[in-house]
Design goal:
With about 200 residues, the chain is of the alpha+beta class. It has 7 helices and 7 strands. A hairpin with a 1-residue loop joins β1 and β2.
Amino acid sequence: MAFWSSLLKWMIIGTLFVIFPWTIPIAVLYLIAKSGIFRKVLRRLHGLWREGRIFDRISDWKARSCKLLKKESFALDYYLPSSASPYAILTKGTGFVCLSSFSIKDRSRSPEAYKRAVGEVLKALGGGDRTISFVVVVTDDGDFLNSMQIASKHGPSIKKEFERAGIEHMELLNIARTVITSTSPTASVEIHRGKDIILKPVVIP
């Protein structure tokens, strides 16, 4: 009996779709909503929003998809794919240097926490043809103003190589973020973007 009831129900639904085809997208959306996909996506977006990372993801997507570098100047001539780019390009001879930087934030304001976080980042990002530099200043209030820079040399200076180097740096920044947040529950990362990368102390290999 249940079989025939189910068959009759689907026959009626199929007939409705044939007579009113515009109801198909509505039915598809209903099935997607019922499956819980919307809830999962909203939960993920809420998590990113709470962590303050949703705008980082949008900016990173723009940087990955951008095909043009815009020339800027501030003491040094440098190039950015966008104003919120997480990396900058400096031409050097026939090659170029890709720069990115970030600051470690720790609510505990503990020197040991900073030292541990820096050590873990150096361990994770060390090696390869890149230079990792760390600069820290202690304010009168006891705050640590720090900047950690990743610099890598590449060549030749062509668009394809710019894109490859930039994507590589974004992956390194994500590694640094993961390492630091797993090192301490009070630690987080602020990724520098656009001209802020050049405004920080820069070490060019």
